[in-house]
Amino acid sequence: MARAAAALWLLFGLAACVLAAPQNVTSQHALQSMSLDDLDLQLQTCSIVQELSAIKHAHHAEAPSSLTTRLFAVLFPGSPAVNALLATLYISGPPNFLLALCPTNIDPSSLSVMVAFAVGGLLGDTLFHLLPEIFLGEDESGRARFVLVEPNRNLVLGLAILVGFMTFVAMDKGLRIATGGGGGHDHSHAHAHVHSHADSKAVVSGSHVGSDEVKSRRKGKGKREVVEKEKDQHKEVNPSVKLGGYLNLIADFTHNITDGLAMSASFYASPTIGATTTVAVFFHEIPHEVGDFALLIQSGFSKRAAMASQFVTALGALMGTLIGIAVQELGGGNANGEASMPRNAGLWKTSLTWGDMLLPFTAGTFLYVGTVAVIPELLETGPNKSQELRKTLIQFSAVAVGAGIMLYISWHD
Predict the structure, then answer these.
(1) How far apart are CA 187 and CA 6, in angstroms?
(2) Is residue 214 domain-resident?
(3) pLDDT of residue 331 exceeding 90
(4) Mind listing the UniProt keywords for this protein, alphabetically (predicted)?
């Protein structure tokens, strides 16, 4: 009964504030032309809203700052643009330097646990941070905040999510067509396919070499010469496999551009969203970069050339970040992800700007990478049931840990 009475009191109080707010506006036309920020300022003058803000501010003032909050404050101390550039360095630098420690004969399928962990992080960041931020906005510790329901605005945001999702569908489909069936993000399957394809070509070429070797023996050539010739033949890589490696570099460069867009869009939404997106992308980049590194090695690249190529593709993330910053600065959005223009003067007569489209686009790409592009890899099974059951439990645990980290950060920040 006490909660019902409090809720009823709050409802009547807000209704009184809303009815009283238009008295401060000169005309109905002026009310319609107000931006969301202006409407929020009008609501903040209401006594009951001020009371709620005071209670909320006192609660947050008493609660000690969490470890993640202090860590994020150290890692991202600047403006949204500066923090986005710092995040791009964090997600691009360390994963590429780790490639120096990777052996050239690494099997991408051995990364399944790390891939599962990355899936949990990406989906956790999307579901716990990006989607709530997109439709409701970021919570504020110092005051009560109200959301203006604008149906067409939500439809446009949902459309941007769909566009992001389908953009990655088109990219993946185009890469599969170009490589003859190999996928762009499904590392273990695509790499195993390329590897077996290269091996079969090597065996075929080796069979032809064998007939030459018999002839050379008949001509009196030594056994050592035959072995050296056979090694040289096995070092050759099928041209189609090399082409697949170069196409994968192009896909990786494009993928990194979307990561850069995610960095800029997230930090312009809020520092917390930017930090959690950085963590999610970082954990995804490690198995992603190692898988691409293994594919380049199998495509005939030397270890040094493969590492150099990965550093070049990392420039795509920097390019995407700079593009995202330009869109945010010039597209009419602000650091809170809301428009400062009249709420019906944006895209398709909504309050949205082009800068507001980057975050839902990012959410769509994350949904694709975390589900369609990666989960099929986790669904692959072998003939040994007990081994596959143990492997599945480990993978599900890794997904839970990745999502749990995102949930912890969201809960305490």
Answers:
(1) 55
(2) no
(3) no
(4) Membrane, Signal, Transmembrane, Transmembrane helix
Bigger pLDDT: 410 vs 387: 387
DSSP 110: G
Question: What average pLDDT does this structure show over 362-389?
Answer: 87
| DSSP state, residue 107 | -
If one counts every other C-beta atom within 10 angstroms of the C-beta of residue 163, the result is: 14
Q: Pull the structure tokens for residue 142.
A: 């110092």
Question: Would you mind telling me the total number of residues written for the chain in this entry?
Answer: 413
Backbone angles phi, psi at 305, to 5 degrees: -65, -40
Within a domain: 222: no
* pLDDT for the residue numbered 237: 52
Model confidence over 257-277: pLDDT tens digits?
989 999 999 999 888 889 999
> Residues 66-80, buried b or exposed e (16+ Cβ, 10 A)?
eebeeebeeebeeeb
Between the alpha carbon of residue 139 and those of residues 13, 132, 242, the distances in Å are: 22, 10, 50
Q: What is the pTM of this model?
A: 0.71
d(CA 140, CA 336): 10
- Bridge partners of 339, per DSSP, are 333
d(CA 332, CA 368): 28
Residue 190 pLDDT class (50, 70, 90 cuts): very low
Residue 187 within any structural domain of the chain: no
Is 184 strand, coil or helix?
coil
Q: Which of 119, 123, 94, 251 is nearest to 185 (CA)?
A: 251
- The DSSP line for 331-343 is TTB-TTS-BSS-T
Count of structural domains within the chain: 1
**What is the C-alpha separation between 59 and 139, in angstroms, rounded?**
14
* Highest mean pLDDT out of 69-78, 81-90, 402-411: 81-90
Answer for the pair 400, 122: CB distance below 8 angstroms, yes or no.
no
Q: Does residue 225 lie within any of the structural domains?
A: no
Positive/negative CA dihedral, 228, 229, 232, 238: negative
Q: Is the pLDDT of residue 126 over 90?
A: yes
CA distance 140 to 144: 7
The pLDDT value given to residue 206:
40
Q: How far apart are CA 273 and CA 133, in angstroms?
A: 8
Looking at the DSSP assignment, which residues form a beta bridge with residue 333? 339
